[in-house]
Amino acid sequence: MHDADAPHLRVLRLLRDEGPVSRAELGDRLELTRPRLLAEVERLVAAGLIAEAGMAASRGGRRSTLVELDPRLRFAAVDLGASSIDIEVTNGRLEPVATYRESADIRSGPRTILQRVNELLHKARTDGAYERLDAVGIGVPGPVSFRDGVPVSPPIMPGWDRYPVRELLAREHGCPAVVDNDVNIMAIGERHGGVAHSVDDFLFVKIGTGIGCGIHLGGTVYRGVDGCAGDIGHIQVDANGPVCSCGNTGCLEALFSGFALGRDAIAAARSGESPALAERLAAALSLAESQSDDDQSEPVVTITARDVADGAAEGDVTCIRLIREGGRRVGGVLATLVSFSNPSMIVIGGGLALLGHVLLAEIRSVVYRRSLPLATGNLPVVLSELGSRAGVTGAAVLASDTAFEQAS
Questions:
Q1: The pLDDT value given to residue 2
Q2: Using an 8 Å Cβ cutoff, are 241 and 232 in contact?
Q3: 154 in the same domain as 226
Q4: pTM, rounded to two decimals
Q5: Domain assignment of residue 133, yes or no
Q6: Domain total for the chain?
Q7: Strand 50-55 to 75-80 pairing
Q8: Domain containing 304: what range?
């Protein structure tokens, strides 16, 4: 890794984040002497990273030339969820030029999933989105050794432990690759283009199939010594709770997550406790049975977070209770983290963010009640602005940083 304050990195990131800038303004903004700046710009032009972009408006003297990131730059951003693949190919400004999203089961293993990722990226090239990739960034739903570019003992990703994800993507696409966990890339995405833009110290909490926390401190993601900082889904909140996918009992995500909410919602539907969910379960069963008549297979029926959210919106007492109980558990863990790290914002994202303001109000209530007034006096707890795009946005930022760092 290169020094984050290296002049070439500062030039490239400014052009990425703000678009074409004149040489004169670059020198002013980055506080570089004219000879130093001209030397950096010349080198980056020769490296194919930046290009001239016409003349700037006059500032009173001779007009300066605008420079921009080379229009041919392309980054691949991949966000793997427990049940989905999201891909964007972006230009140097991280604007998408091709987008692909499809369902996929992460448990089908790294060969199957990465083969599909590669097929989609090659399709993007065939469709004219790029001639060559300059870097690939990928997020996966489990702990990652950022240094080694491999997942490490991920609870919901059988077969992925120590799989050489970074090495294989770099070899397949002939460019640098970078691997991080999904919640870190979501935090990076929200910092780049979402509600946390320009916030240096915040927590991004992903509530989806599992629960994780991206810790953004001092303007950068804090990953911990081995890359597993923020794994709050496996904090124990109830010693007598259900067994978690990690093997322990009573973890936060065993009690409230996409999986846990679906489990509790089906139980409420079957017992008749929730009329709204019972109605949805009956409709889902009827549909599944009609679709399985041909192959005689046992119908697979699920109730999703969307069903619970819709039930709550209709005033179903049980749906509202399920969301509030989940929010209370998440809020309790976050209150501890607020007392510990004193962030300036908490952002809630992931699939269960669609539970909306019932969930948010409960989390806020517990955090504000349980944390010290000094830490919460000016602490917004808000929903992600980028939603499902937070992951691919962050993966694109990571990919661009990786390409820029290697341009020494």
A1: 47
A2: no
A3: no
A4: 0.91
A5: yes
A6: 3
A7: unpaired
A8: 197-384
